[in-house]
Every structure is written in C-alpha cells, then in structure tokens.
Amino acid sequence: MGDLEQIKLHPDMVERIRQLLAEISKGVYEKENEIALSLLASLAGESILLLGPPGVAKSMVARRLKLVFAGARAFEYLMSRFSTPDEIFGPVSISRLKEEDKYERITQGYLPSADIVFLDEIWKAGPAIQNTLLTAINEKIFRNGENELKLPLKLLVAASNELPAHGEGLEALWDRFLIRVICRNIQKEATFHRMLLDETDMDTVPVFPHLQITENEYAEWQQQIKAISIPTDILDRITEIRQRLSGVEIPESDLRRSIYVSDRRWKHIARLLKASAFMHGRTEVCPDDLIVTYHSLWNEPDELPAVHQLVIHSLFALQEKQIKSVAQTLKADLKAYSAHQALEKARHSQNHRDDDLLIVDHFYFQLENHGTGNTFIFLADFMGMKNHQPQDAPQTGVMYTDPLHPERTLIRTFADSSQMKAKNARQVRLYRDNHYLYIDGVQYSMRRLRPGEKLAVSQSTRPTVNRDYETELEQANNAINSLAYKLYTNIFLCEEDKKEIEQHVANLRKLIAFARVDARKLLYGDEA
Q1: Fewest Cβ atoms nearer than 10 Å: which of 292, 330, 390, 420?
Q2: In what order do the strands lie in the sheet with 177-182?
Q3: pTM for the structure as a whole
Q4: Confidence grade of residue 429 (pLDDT, cut at 50, 70, 90)
C-alpha cells in the first residue's frame, strides 16, 4: 500500500465540509466560492488573494475562516504606505533590549501568533514587511531576534482593489498567492434583496463545535494530504493544460499570449489538487479536482476567461479527441461508401466506361501523368462528370494538397478554392471523355488495370466497417456525462464554472449527434 496506508478514509468528509461551509457562509452572500477556496487554501498550506473593490465582503471571508478552526486566533490589518513592521509583527521588546541587549519583538496578538491572517491593501506594504511576509508565507517561519518561530499560520488572506504595480519589486509576493479570485458585488437581485433584509450580526455566526477542525485533526490531515496520489492520467491532463498555456487566445485581441507558470507554482498546484481530493474523501486526485487550477494560472485579469475555458476544455480533452477521431474515420468511410454507390449506380445504368479504372483507397481514381503521379480525383466526382461536348462549359473544380497525406494532390469537381483552408488549394477547369481527364485544357491519362491485372475485391464489394462507431460514441457520451456530474457536485464549483461546463458539454454532444447521423448513414444507407 505504501503511502496510502497513511490515509484514513473519511466517508463523511464531504458532508462535514459541506455543512461547515454552509454554516460559515450564512449572511455572506455570493461569497460561497471564495470561502470554499479559502478553506482549500488553508488545508493545502497556501495563501489566497481576493481582488475587488471595497465593500464586497473580502474581510468577512477571512473572519469566517477563523470559525472553521477550534480556538483559532486571528489578525487583521489595513496596510498603508506608512505601515511599519512593528504594526504587523509586533513591537520591539524594550525590556529585552535594555536588560539582555537582544532585539526581539512581542509577537502575542500580532501576525506571528495568528492562525488566520487578513491583510488588506497588501500592495501598499513596504519592502521590510514584504520580505518578512515572503518567509512567513513560504516557510511558515518568523525570525525573531536569534530565534526562529514556527508560525501557527493556517491561512493568509490578502485583499486589494488593484493589481501590484510593475517594476516595484512586488512580483515575488504576487507569486506567493497560489489562489487568486476576483470578487464582485452581488449579481442576483433576489440575493441582493435577501442581504438587505438580513438582520443577522455577521460577526457572531455560531459554528457547531463538532464541525470545527481541531489542532490535532489539522496536523493529522496535513500528513494524509501529502499521501494522496496523483495518477498518470491526471499528470497527462496537467501537461495538456501546461502546453495550452503557451498560446492563450485573449478576448478582443488578435494576439495569443504565453502565460508563464513557474515549476515551483506547479508544485504548489499539485498540493492544492491533493487537498481537493482529500476534502472530497478520496485517496487520489481525480479529473474534477483540476477545476480549481484556473484560479492559479492567470496573471492579468483579461487572461482569466480564456484560462477558465482552457482548463474546462482540457478536462474533456480525452473525450473530445475520441469523438473527433470517430468523426474523422466516419467521414473517410462515408467517402468510400459514396464511391461504392457511384460505382454500383454506373454498373446498373449499363455505363461501363470506367470499369477498368483502378480504385485507390476505396474512393480515388489516379492520374498517371500528372506531376509525380500522386494526383487523385474522387471516384464519385469523376464518374459523375458527363462526357464533354464542344458547346459545354468546363466544370469548376479545386486542386489541393491532401491534409492527411501531404505527398498527394487531390481534385474535387465541386468547391470554391477561396473558401478552402487546405494547403495550396487552387481553382481549376475540368472536363472528361471516355479515356482522359482534362485539367485547364491539358489532357491526362487515368490509371487503368494492366493486362492480366485482376479487379480488386475492394472495387467490387461494399467497403467493410471495422469499428463499432455507435458503441464508441456511446462510451464517449457516458464518459462526458460522468465527468460533468462529478464536476457539478464538486465543492469548489461556482455558477460561472457550471455555465461554462454546460456550454462545452452541449457542444460535445452536438459533435456526437452529428457523428451518430454519419454512423447511421454508413450502417443503414443514405435514407436512414
């Protein structure tokens, strides 16, 4: 079992967490997600930044988190340009300085003695405060004179109504906040009205003691979270997200942006995923845990919508690839089936002019003397062309590089080259007679069966369908439904997440529906 032996499964963990969040969210409207993410940050040993205007209950989030932990102590401070380290970390002990010539702070009642810390207007902190905060957030250590104090800090919540200014040395502190959330005013009018009518004292919300997390539990849980495993398929999904971050499409911009996320930050994100799995009562990270990662991957607010969408799309990437693979192969099989139908139609109409033409890959005829000999025309297109008469206008066609086989050139008798995205597509004039194809007036021979060469079986029978398309599509649909359900029941899902997921799932279901139509055409004929 290894590390898994260290994990005690808590089957009632999810219910306890949900009840705890419900209790501490009373009277704090439309901040349930911020509170849930703050609890996640505290169990993962991380810090959270709330970005938003004044008066949107940012400080209340930190105050409610204090209620989560039995006997927790809190520290709050509003930063200004004139804030000093004494106001944050405690004043210097004059008696110790006089009697023992030691420079030590009186930390009781200040940040070094607090379990939950809330620092408002964080970017106004001076360099001395910033440097001490970096050590406190990173290592949970405070150097007090000659001594190193192990901080009881479980969560640092920082708030600001602005991003850190560039070029002022705030990048390191900004990077330490693993979770970043944009806070807004109440959006729903019904919720706004409830807030107006609520007379509850927001600072005196009781929490049932049996729901609170004790000091011993917190220490035990920290070890159990470390032992949570991250399976290979989750690592693959993380890689997919990481790679997609190199070219993010920013809304209302023609440029793609590469979003930098350090290796250190990814390491902390892995810890966040483990904490999420633990809070859902699991021993390993699952795909739905990845939904929290988008809170950790943006640097500028205009990146957030794109990163949000990117993460959700990555969650369903395996199913999307499966659907597109089925759809692509279906299209190829349908082309082969169309070629078969054209061949059969010609035979039934007593038209035998093309009986000796060689069929390549089920649905191509080959030109013998065009270019390198790797030029092909679709069987159905060639057979559908009438023999050219002098009074007839040539048929419009298009010639392009086969995207699946770049060494090939393909010809279609329909299409507008200006609308094609295929490589090197150009418009051509086509006509034919019993023996040749004419491209822009130049005559080309067709590859015919050689003397003694037998008709291939594939030319005289309906193409074989080697895949159970309907079953594959049903499997993809079931996997999408299963993942969507798990996401909808995830503790950290917000309304915006649900809307984005619903939209993406609807788009995937459309792809499945279109593929099912093609599958029925292939299996039961065009009239099905």
Answers
A1: 390
A2: 74-78, 116-120, 155-160, 47-51, 177-182
A3: 0.77
A4: very high
